[in-house]
Specification:
This protein is α/β, with parallel strands linked by helices and about 170 residues long. Helices cover about 35% and strands about 15% of the residues. It is globular.
Length: about 170
């Protein structure tokens, strides 16, 4: 959020249904996809600008699934992309058809996405794509937030114009 708002982009940060103080109950990804669509619809109605999606962990997996096919999206950022967590196995076959610019940032010690596994996920996706592995970082990037934010800032500054929209350079 801080990395994107630092570029002057409007940012919406939300909890999925049943997380934190939000209403509803966890729906194993189905209802949460509706949450992402509702957030995209709100951003569209409020700002009428191209959107860059950025999600973390379950949010990244859920958001990528929704955003890959949405024409309002100019780019996708996936942080701590899970491969397996708490008995769930994530598949990313839909990435094969996702031609949007994509940034994946993962910790070298991410317990939910070992480096070899996240490399296989990224290999599924066509260009443009980038994978940044942060040495010493775990799933939550503890002690490495500046490096994670730096990866986002570097990617954004190379691909998009600063200001209030995610307009490709």
């Amino acid at each position: 959020m801080k990395a994107l708002s630092g570029f002057g982009f409007p940012v919406l940060r939300f909890n999925f249904r049943g997380a934190g103080l939000s209403d509803g109950e966890h729906d194993k990804g189905k209802g949460e996809q509706a949450d992402v669509r509702a957030a995209l619809d709100w951003l569209e109605s409020e700002f009428h600008l191209p959107i860059i999606f950025c999600g973390f962990s379950f949010g990244a997996a859920t958001g990528l699934r929704v955003c890959c096919g949405d024409t309002r999206l100019a780019g996708l950022i996936s942080l701590g992309t899970p491969v397996a967590a708490e008995g769930r196995v994530y598949t990313y076959h839909y990435l094969q058809n996702c031609a949007k610019p994509k940034l994946f940032v993962s910790g070298a010690q991410d317990q939910y996405a070992p480096t070899e596994n996240i490399r296989k996920v990224v290999e599924l996706a066509p260009e443009p794509k980038e994978l940044v592995i942060i040495e010493g970082a775990g799933h939550f990037f503890e002690g490495h937030l500046a490096e994670m934010q730096g990866a986002i800032q570097s990617w954004i500054s190379r691909l998009f114009k600063p200001g209030k929209q995610a307009e490709a350079i």
